[in-house]
Amino acid sequence: MSAGPAVAQRKKVGVLVSGRGSNLQALLDACADPTFPAEIVLVISNVPGVLALERAEKAGVATTVIPHRDYPSREAFDAAMDLVLRAAGIEIVCLAGFMRLLSSGFVAGWQGAMLNIHPSLLPSFKGLHTHRQALEAGVKLHGCTVHLVTPDLDDGPILAQSAVPVLDDDDEASLAARVLEQEHVVYPLALRLLAEGRVTVQGNRALIRG
């Protein structure tokens, strides 16, 4: 009697958080499907007591708090995170509301295996207050982007984007809410693409197979 087809090994994901963790929840929900090609096995927060940690614990995912204030430099803090991630066998790192700039050494160590979601249609409106920037610029479309992380802020090969219209009566809050809905859709999609090995990087372009 022959064995059935081999089930592909799910990629082990570590998520870095600092706050409420709504994008973490979207990833947790996606990974709850046993056919999803990735599983979240560790959530690290640099801030104790945040809602994101509660979300992970409810999902049965291991959590670790590494307070950045306990370290003398960004490099030392990143090195501590790196040790914990590698000890857990992490293969893909996802940033989900992680409010720390990462050192170039940490980014280099996870090159091609670290995703970030940014609330704008990159390369437009990098940095903070993206919804305010979009309203002030008068654009008709705004949205979100999932990209591979590089040492440059909010830069790197783009895996997925989703756009929403900017309405005449929008303020920052209403625009942010519509963009956030799309973030929850597009981040699991991008993680799937990377975990399935369908992403090839050429220069600053991410080419998606299939």
Question: What features would you describe in this structure?
Answer:
The chain is globular and about 50 Å long. Helix 1 runs parallel beside helix 6 (172-195). The strands form 2 sheets. It has a 7-stranded mixed sheet, covered by helices on one side. It is an alpha/beta fold and 210 residues long. It has 6 helices and 9 strands, in the order E-H-E-H-E-H-E-H-E-H-E-E-H-E-E.
Summed up:
This protein is an alpha/beta fold.
Work out the radius of gyration. Answer: 17 Å
Count of individual helical segments: 6
Which class do the helix and strand fractions yield? alpha/beta
Query: Helix coverage percent of residues?
Result: 25-40%
The beta-strand count equals 9
The order of strands across the largest sheet is 3-2-1-4-5-6-7
Kindly, what is the distance between the CA atoms of the first and last residues, rounded to a whole number of angstroms?
A: 33 Å
What percentage of amino acids are in beta strands?
A: 15-25%
Q: What letter string, H or E per element, gives the SSE order?
A: EHEHEHEHEHEEHEE
Oligomer: single chain
Shape: globular
Question: How would the blueprint of this fold be written?
Answer:
Elements: E1 11-17, H1 22-31, E2 38-45, H2 51-58, E3 62-65, H3 74-87, E4 92-95, H4 104-109, E5 114-118, H5 130-137, E6 141-148, E7 158-165, H6 172-195, E8 199-202, E9 205-208
Parallel strand pairs: 1-2, 1-4, 2-3, 4-5
Antiparallel strand pairs: 5-6, 6-7, 8-9
